[in-house]
Write a structure and sequence with these properties.
Length: 97
């Protein structure tokens, strides 16, 4: 048998087998999940200004001193003690920095 004839014969035999791949291809199955963009839509609905997802805004004069003080206390091994909260006190914060 000539090589070209052998190749055509093998191709003819492989076609029915390869046609069955369509049934297991997850991109073509209707019962599989397909991306719809719902996650991006939900995220945009949760932010006050959806344009912030494209480009952020400046903090606008935020005072970083509190954060700097907290890091400095950790670096010098002088962290503040945790608040002692009893289960009946309702939690909350003491307002201390």
């Amino acid at each position: 048998m000539a090589p070209a004839t052998l190749a055509l014969t093998l191709l003819a035999l492989a076609m029915p087998v390869l046609a069955g791949c369509d049934a297991i291809d997850s991109d073509r199955r209707a019962d599989d999940w397909h991306p719809t963009g719902a996650n991006a839509g939900n995220l945009a609905a949760m932010v006050v200004r959806p344009s912030d997802l494209i480009s952020g805004r400046s903090a606008g004069g935020a005072d970083a001193r509190t954060s700097v003080d907290a890091v400095e206390r950790v670096r010098t091994d002088h962290p503040k003690a945790l608040m002692n909260v009893s289960p009946t006190s309702g939690g909350g914060t003491s307002g201390q920095n």
